[in-house]
């Protein structure tokens, strides 16, 4: 009988040990999942077809190496004349509409790093806000992108373009403002990171959104808005491009004038 009691006690002790171990493993996994800048719970990884289309395009018509890459979501994807707006700067666009920060982060090994851009212009996070993501999670994934890009391309300058305080996000402007403030503060102490805010051009003197610039969805823009964006972004990129050309030992950056003297890219 004593033997049975001892056997039962051992089984209970073993059960407790296994339960504690399982709980510890679960907690470790949950902590890792929370810390990893991957797909948030309840979300998915989309746009594999769009990325494949980019890669197919790269094979038939390769983009310029060591140029200026625009990457992000539909705000950039719908900037269809960005090359004309930024000319003669060597710009190309790999934004894909509807993308969230985790998707841009996931696909950067395919549509960011291989191009070895001298400058990256990044606009992502707007769709994260619409998906209900909290500001710290959005900021964390943006920082993960910035870290990976800098590790792979230490000479590349990156510009974070602030999330627009668009009418469709009015109830979540506090999230937008927190993400933008965090990235502005980071840019102030990070030599390879710049911060560009388009929001001042999107509000009138009363502090209200200039609704005439927006499409009916209150998110996307009519063409005149992109004229305003170009007026803000192009001078910044022009200066950065000239500085990159003077600091790097790679091919000399193409001159901005006259056009016929520019290096072919």
Would you write up a description of this structure?
The structure is a single chain. The chain has 265 residues and is an alpha/beta fold. The protein has a single domain (65-259), classed as 3-Layer(aba) Sandwich (Rossmann fold), CATH 3.40.50.1110. The chain contains nine helices and five strands. It has helices spanning 2-35, 48-60, 74-77, 82-86, 101-111, 126-130, 135-152, 173-188, 223-247; strands at residues 68-72, 91-93, 119-123, 157-161, 193-196. The chain is globular, with a radius of gyration of 24 Å. The N and C termini lie far apart (88 Å). Mean pLDDT is 85; it is low at 1-10, 13-36 and 249-265.
In short:
This protein has 265 residues and is of the alpha/beta class.
Number of domains: 1
> What is the class in the CATH system?
Alpha Beta
Unreliable runs, pLDDT <50, ≥5 residues? 1-10, 13-36, 249-265
The CATH homologous superfamily name equals SGNH hydrolase
Reported CATH architecture: 3-Layer(aba) Sandwich
Structural Rg: 24 Å
The helix/strand order is HHEHHEHEHHEHEH
* Beta-strand residue fraction: 5-15%
Q: Which sequence of strands runs across the widest sheet?
A: 2-1-3-4-5
Task: List the total number of helices.
Answer: 9
Overall geometric form: globular
Terminal-residue CA separation:
88 Å
Overall pLDDT level = 85
- Please describe the biggest sheet, giving its number of strands, its sense, and whether it closes into a barrel: 5 strands, parallel
CATH topology: Rossmann fold
Structural class given helices, strands, pairing? alpha/beta
């Amino acid at each position: 009988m004593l033997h049975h009691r001892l056997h039962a006690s051992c089984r209970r002790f073993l059960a407790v040990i296994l339960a504690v171990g399982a709980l510890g493993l679960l907690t470790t996994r949950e902590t890792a999942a929370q810390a990893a800048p991957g797909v948030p719970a309840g979300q998915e990884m989309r746009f594999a077809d769009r990325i494949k289309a980019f890669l197919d395009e790269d094979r038939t018509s390769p983009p310029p190496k060591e140029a200026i890459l625009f990457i992000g979501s539909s705000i950039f994807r719908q900037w269809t004349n960005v090359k004309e707006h930024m000319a003669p700067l060597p710009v190309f666009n790999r934004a894909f509409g509807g993308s969230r920060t985790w998707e841009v982060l996931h696909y950067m090994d395919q549509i960011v790093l291989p191009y070895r851009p001298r400058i990256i212009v990044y606009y992502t996070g707007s769709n994260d806000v619409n998906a209900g993501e909290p500001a710290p999670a959005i900021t964390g994934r943006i920082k993960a992108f910035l870290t990976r890009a800098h590790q792979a391309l230490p000479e590349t300058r990156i510009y974070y373009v602030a999330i627009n305080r668009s009418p469709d996000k009015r109830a979540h402007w506090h999230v937008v403002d927190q993400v933008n403030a965090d990235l502005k503060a980071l840019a102030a102490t990070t030599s390879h990171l710049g911060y560009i805010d388009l929001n001042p051009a999107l509000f009138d003197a009363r502090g209200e959104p200039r609704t005439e610039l927006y499409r009916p969805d209150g998110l996307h823009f009519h063409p005149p808005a992109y004229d305003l964006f170009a007026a803000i972004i192009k001078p910044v990129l022009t200066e950065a491009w000239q500085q990159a050309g003077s600091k790097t030992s790679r091919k000399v950056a193409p001159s901005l004038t006259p056009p016929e003297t520019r290096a072919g890219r």
